[in-house]
Structures are given as C-alpha cells and as structure tokens.
Design a protein that fits this description.
The protein has a single domain, classed as Transferase(Phosphotransferase), domain 1. The protein is about 20% helix and about 20% strand. The protein has three helices and eight strands, in the order βββαβββαββα. The protein has a five-stranded antiparallel beta sheet, with helices on one face. It starts with 12 loop residues before the first strand and ends with a helix.
Length: about 190
C-alpha cells in the first residue's frame, strides 16, 4: 500500500518523507515555481500558529540585510494547506551533516563550525532574538557550494516555552532560552 502524504496544495507535490518528530514532519517536494526540490515542514498541531507565522515573517524580513543570512536554509514561505494544516517551505540541502559524521578533515570541521556559528549569529541578532530550539547534526547540512547551513526553520521562535526539539541536545541552561549548548554538541 503506498504511503499517504499530506497535501500542501499550491502546486507542491510531495515526493518522499524526510523525517520528523513529535511536533512536525519534513518532506521532499517539487514545485512548478522552483527548479530544485524543496523541504516542506508540516506541523502536527497548529496550537502555536500565530507565533510560527510571526517568527516566519521575521525571518523573511531579516534575510536580505544581514551578512550571515546565507548560513540558514533559504526560507520560502509559510502557508496553510487545503486540510487546514500549517506548513513551511524552505531550501532542501544537498547533504545533512549527520550523514558525514564523524569528520576526519580538520579544515572541513573548522569551516562547518564557522558557518554554523554564523547562522546562529544571524538568528540571535534579530529583534527580538530568535533561537532554533532543535539544533542538531540532522538539522544542519551542506548546500551545493559546500557551505554549511542550518535548516528545519520550523522550530525557530522568539518565544521561550515548551521543549519542542530533540531532548538529546538540550542544555542545562535551556530554560534560559539559549542555543549555546546545542552548538557545542553539534
């Protein structure tokens, strides 16, 4: 029996399941509006829909002006599908970092660490500051130019609150609203 995929509508066609967690799932999709496939993140529960929309709008407004905006997966849109479920569309990176670990090339390791630090600098420089909340190897990857980027922007927020990400990279200081511990783990 074929797997049943969600329907984002708007010309998107889901091609495969990429992964997911407690509060959202990611899919590879094609669209007539872009040459490359995209990642479509579906939320399981729309409880925080207003906060997600506000923080998504912050990302869209902030991206063009900051020198480190290129270290996040390109954020395309936030929409509601025909079934009423909220979803986010973002750049699909060529190679997730979890498939590369452990790295034995020190130069590549330093370059990736620098790139990811720049991505977090961009998030934390926003007004209000944004945190990722689910920073881990499988939410970071390389684009086609081998630049490391942070993706899965559906967990980015400006509001402290519930643990929505992966518990294995949660810091003791998590309740102080920080990505610092997760950066070290990655």
């Amino acid at each position: 029996m074929p797997e049943k995929f969600p329907n984002p509508g708007e010309g998107y066609k889901i091609r495969e399941y990429l992964g997911g967690g407690h509060w959202k799932s990611a899919y590879r999709a094609t669209t007539p509006f872009r040459l490359a496939d995209v990642a479509v993140l579906f939320f399981h529960d729309n409880v925080a829909e207003d906060a997600i929309r506000r923080d998504a709008a912050s990302l869209i407004r902030a991206v063009p002006g900051h020198p480190y905006s290129g270290y996040l997966a390109q954020f395309h849109s936030v929409s509601v599908g025909p079934d009423g479920r909220l979803f986010i569309v973002e750049e699909l990176l060529a190679r997730p970092l979890d498939r590369m670990a452990p790295l034995s090339d020190l130069t590549q390791f330093v370059r990736i660490a620098r790139d990811l630090s720049r991505g977090l600098t961009f998030l934390h420089a926003q007004k209000p500051p944004l945190i990722h909340r689910d920073l881990k190897l499988d939410n970071c990857g390389l684009d086609h130019q081998q630049r490391a980027k942070i993706f899965d922007l559906g967990s980015v927020t400006s509001e402290p609150g519930d643990v929505l990400g992966t518990i294995f990279t949660r810091a003791p200081e998590f309740f102080l609203f920080s990505d610092k511990w997760a950066t070290g783990v990655v």
